[in-house]
Amino acid sequence: MFKLVRGFKDILPADTALWQHVEGIVRELLEDFGFSELRIPILEQTELFARSIGASTDIVEKEMYTFTDRGGASLTLRPEATASVVRSYIEHQLYAKDPVRKLYTIGPMFRRERPQKGRYRQFYQINAEVFGLHDPRVDAELILLLMTFIDRLELSGIMLHINSLGCPECRPRFKDALKSFLAGRSEQFCSDCLRRRHENPLRIFDCKVPACKEATMEAPSILDDLCEACRAHFENVKRSLDGFEIPYQINHRLVRGLDYYTRTTFEVLADALGAQDAVAGGGRYDGLVKALGGPDQPGVGFAIGVDRLMELLAGRAQSFQKRPHLYIAALGPNTQERAFEWVQDLRKNKVRTEMDFQDRSLKSQMRRANKLGAGYALIVGERELDEGAAVLRNMTTKEEEGIPLDDLVGLVVKKIKPSTAGSR
Ligand code: AMP
Fold it and tell me: 385 CA to middle of ligand 1, Å?
């Protein structure tokens, strides 16, 4: 028997209604905030990710699904979306008419990490990116969008962490401070951290090895080394968040696992998730569009991890499953024929209708109606067919009434739809 590839998973029918519900909420919200959807492929040239995410990150060094295709090109299943969105922004000159663009995309990402609870090799993200605006209020507005989404899902135990990673002017200073810090402590860090310490010492903050995490506790803070412009930017972001009454924690060790970030970075953590507690993360990446060959336009964005959101919402999956409005329990071949037509006509009227195709006993058909959670059952046997009226049974109250067959569809639609249309 074939099995799932390790780290991959199926999202089963019991859960997909909740996924659709969550995606519906976020789409509506993103569109209210002026975003348009961009659909991008899941495969890109390897070089795009290596250049944008950074050659000395965990993602690029050890987690990408990279292969050589039959034409000899090196391709990679996307480990994140920003690089592809930037590629698309540049390739289609989406900046030409107006460099300010707000784009969102929803879909799977691939990283060959060690699978565990909350960490998969294929996982889903909702990504939002804003191009062309330097204003710190844009960073705050994106965070507001993210927190509004979390609020709409009625999640609790959520904390927002924010930091600033400075810019090419002030970050080198901090990198030097960090190198000096590391110089005296090489025995406390793993070989990856030590190897990356010259080129990219900030990576020590992102290392997943517990001893490294512990050892960074005493590291210097980048917030002490910010240049005036970065400091003002960060103050402004905080002021806007205060204005929105969004609580946050300043976390100077928040560097995120990708190298392209500048200035604002943020992460949303959920208590209930345990070790893999980040539900969303993002930040500003002012140099990325230019570095990938585009115009010198700033960018800021976030990614929400949908799988982890779903874990937080797990108890609610059942209430989102779509149930039939009506189940037609038809007895006997002639009645089944008529029922088959009614089913199609009712569906045309948006009444979710199911029937039995096996001509089973009334008892087993009613059992199935119950199992499916149908709101109503329509009971018709050969006798009802002769007499010209079927029985409509409310499955909750058990009330029954006769429905004349000559206008069955019209009457059922009238009876059922006002109360149940749009319901589950
Ligand atoms: P990142 O691009 O690493 O900042 O990830 C953004 C969000 O995607 C995280 O906050 C997680 O919620 C989610 N995420 C990242 N990697 C994984 C993974 N391997 N499995 C499940 N979710 C993930």
Answer: 58
